[in-house]
Amino acid sequence: xxxxxxxxxxxxxxxxxxxxxxxxxxxxxxxxxxxxxxxxxxxxxxxxxxxxxxxxxxxxxxxxxxxxxxxxxxxxxxxxxxxxxxxxxxxxxxxxxxxxxxxxxxxxxxxxxxxxxxxxxxxxxxxxxxxxxxxxxxxxxxxxxxxxxxxxxxxxxxxxxxxxxxxxxxxxxxxxxxxxxxxxxxxxxxxxxxxxxxxxxxxxxxxxxxxxxxxxxxxxxxxxxxxxxxxxxxxxxxxxxxxxxxxxxxxxxxxxxxxxxxxxxxxxxxxxxxxxxxxxxxxxxxxxxxxxxxxxxxxxxxxxxxxxxxxxxxx
Amino acid sequence: xxxxxxxxxxxxxxxxxxxxxxxxxxxxxxxxxxxxxxxxxxxxxxxxxxxxxxxxxxxxxxxxxxxxxxxxxxxxxxxxxxxxxxxxxxxxxxxxxxxxxxxxxxxxxxxxxxxxxxxxxxxxxxxxxxxxxxxxxxxxxxxxxxxxxxxxxxxxxxxxxxxxxxxxxxxxxxxxxxxxxxxxxxxxxxxxxxxxxxxxxxxxxxxx
Lengths: 315, 208
Hints:
The complex is a heterodimer. Helix content of chain A is 27%, strand content 16%.
């Protein structure tokens, strides 16, 4: 029985028969599904950069009015995300102040309270975990960093035969991280704090590679902070919540120290091993330490980074 | 022979195609708030009395009799025998029994008071810098000098004295005067590595 001849039975003239229609539509459907699957991460991208933030100038070029707008935007964003109204400020360096940190290795007992007080103060991500301070357990008689262990978890600290050496950003006078930054998103302020503008950081991680102290941390994923543990006292260059893809590090608690207070890690130390102050003031605690104590190193002194973080011993 | 070798290699390759199963990691627990509490090590008797704490234990003359000297018992090794009424006191101040006499610090004529080595008398409840630190400093001179400069012990509050006040802890806020050496304490949890394999290794190493 001959098939009834229809106008579209022949594929050679560009018309479509049933088979080629099914084939084409099958390929098309697969293609669209694949495209949709490949774009699906975009759907999860809820905290995209706002136009306002994208057009924002560099920190040093912001006028007073600009800064007020920026702080208002950050307040709005934080409130939307955490339902906590923050107090965001832009603290400027104080005149005649250069900050120096001194840490007494004789006194440190390795309890790691400083690590967690820092996390609580500076709104670091809890999962994945970001911490600015690493406490190294080192055997007596050596300052070889290779022998340091930061995963120690004995019943009780301090352990016999070891001393403990907390390491954090050393706030170098000759900071390698600042030199390598391609966008000038990190720089050293007049009071000695090396800061990061999280809105200018492009996340290239050159600074992380350049830092000899493992002081810089990268936000690989969106930081997670429980609402009830958010510290609402924030500063632009300091502890305001970071976004995915930017670097962060210790900034001597800029929101506290530029308001005249001691950093959080110092105030929680049960051994009084941490000392902080203005080195330009001859009456300050750090000046006394420099004059009277065995201030033995700047860590990895031979690299010429000239840290503002000093380790010393009693007696 | 070669074919067999290739077959084995192919099998090994196929076997590992799905890769190692990734165990879902347990969420990182939030740190216990005691690890971010800035309160000092201990509450001294003086602080307890000043802030209206329970003072019933600290009135010496409930048990002792006034104007009657207290006799100290020392064993043959030179260690003081702490009477059972004071069994909460661990005498461990200084090594080699160099400080085994209660009346090195307590005033034998008035047990409510303390005395320095040069005869100054101090009140137990006086927490000012002119009190306990002077008592301790009558032996620990260099430490007192450091403390007065703000370098021994913790200072909290404002580093910039023009902007706010500061608080300095007294000796007995951290040290137990009868056994002043710091006791060991459990450390706060250590870091959790970012990479899952490293994290599993570290976490399993910790529990062992």
